[in-house]
Design a protein that fits this description.
Blueprint: H1 3-21, E1 42-47, H2 53-69, E2 73-78, H3 83-95, E3 100-103, H4 112-120, E4 125-128, E5 138-142, H5 144-158, E6 162-168, H6 174-193, E7 196-197, E8 203-205, H7 211-224, E9 231-234, H8 237-249, E10 257-261, H9 265-273, E11 278-281, H10 284-300, E12 311-314, E13 321-327, E14 330-332, H11 338-342, H12 348-351
Parallel strand pairs: 1-2, 1-3, 3-4, 4-5, 5-13, 6-7, 6-8, 6-9, 9-10, 10-11
Antiparallel strand pairs: 11-14, 12-13
Helix pairs in contact: 2-10, 5-6, 7-8
Length: 363
């Protein structure tokens, strides 16, 4: 065989090998996820805010612990409720060589270019607790439609008739949509019967999910309706705290029925006191651990559909096909407070502050 023919055969073989290693793609550069084989899995996490009790105290420590227990490294940052800051934070995590990104979106639309940049760079993305409108992002959350149902079930059981206020999270985020959809399933038949009414202006979104904004909104609703509000569906416990402050100022705390979610300590204490009827507990420790483990899996295999527990789903807005890991929430009422005590989520002293001994189980 001539030297020229031998050289041509070797060149073809090299090209074929390169194509196989790259899945037939045009680029031969290894993905960020694949590069983790050379060292620890680097997980970068872009948080929307630590203003809410759960994220800094529960979600982050659990996620970080799961990553480090699996031999990975953790880097996190806080957007402090700023979409611009979060976009810069994601850029920083990409530049730092993250193999997997976990994004708890402040603005799920504004962050999409940054998400796409990561995916284009071969970095798998986990949408943490708040959905991203991208079919390649793995969505990990508790079942928020069911959370909405649980809040509404407990509130309607305690207040089957009357005027309702609905205090929702930030406009433009997907969780308020999921939660409201679940609530609607429960209250729609009662509205149709005329048992429940949502007065004009009594359903409002809350920028940043801020308790003080929820308080101001609730004050306006009470004024507009001459305090004639029998129940409030609040989409989280922080805002429920703002609602309770407005109700207390009018002597309505414990009279107007309030429901929320997240299992915040103050809210669980209100459940024990009887001023909040339910706090749907989404175990943030469980969610953080699940995300940390999923990130480690994605370092080995970037296919989000192969992550343990992943099921096919649809994004809420674009109806894109996606993969989701949905954890089960638990409604905490005065009848099962022992559940959060057994989980060491809250101490007896925190749960039972100012509660009459023996008035509820657990106190």
């Amino acid at each position: 065989m001539s030297t020229r023919k031998m050289g041509a055969i070797m060149a073809i073989a090299v090209m074929a090998l390169a194509a196989c290693n790259n899945g037939g793609g045009a680029s031969t550069a290894p993905s960020a996820a694949a590069s983790s084989a050379a060292g620890p899995c680097k997980v970068g996490v872009a948080w929307a805010t630590f203003q809410e009790e759960r994220y800094g105290l529960r979600d982050e420590p659990s996620l970080k612990a799961a990553v480090e227990a699996g031999g990975g490294t953790y880097t996190g940052n806080d957007a402090k409720l700023s979409p611009e800051t979060q976009a810069a934070n994601v850029e920083s995590l990409i530049a730092a060589g993250s193999n997997v990104l976990v994004i708890n979106a402040q603005d799920p639309k504004a962050i999409l270019p940054s998400v796409q940049k990561a995916i284009d760079a071969g970095i798998p993305v986990i949408a943490y607790d708040r959905e991203l409108e991208n079919s390649k992002a793995l969505f990990i959350t508790h079942d928020n439609v069911e959370v909405g149902r649980m809040i509404a079930r407990a509130v309607t059981a305690a207040a089957p008739k009357g005027n309702y206020a609905v205090i929702k999270g930030e406009l433009g985020q997907t969780n308020p949509v999921f939660l409201r959809a679940g609530m609607e399933e429960i209250i729609a038949p009662l509205i149709a019967k005329g048992d429940i009414k949502i007065p004009e202006g009594a359903e409002q979104n809350t920028k940043g999910w801020k308790p003080e904004t929820a308080q101001a909104t609730m004050e306006q609703i009470l004024t507009a309706n001459k305090n004639d509000i029998q129940a409030v569906l609040s989409q989280n416990d922080g805002m429920a705290g703002g609602v309770m402050a407005a109700l207390k100022a009018q002597g309505l705390d414990g009279k107007t029925i309030v429901g929320g979610q997240d299992g915040d300590k103050a809210a669980l204490n209100r459940v024990a006191l009887g001023t909040q009827v339910v706090s749907v507990w989404k175990d943030a420790n469980e969610l953080g651990t699940a995300a940390g483990k999923a990130a480690l899996e994605l370092c080995k295999n970037p296919d989000v559909s192969k992550v343990t527990g992943a099921v096919p789903g649809k994004t809420v807005e674009g109806k894109l096909d996606t993969s989701q890991v949905l954890l089960k929430p638990i409604p905490i009422t005065k009848d099962n407070l022992q559940t959060v005590l057994d989980a060491k989520w809250i101490t007896p002293a925190e749960l039972c502050k100012d509660v009459t001994a023996g008035s509820v189980k657990g106190c």
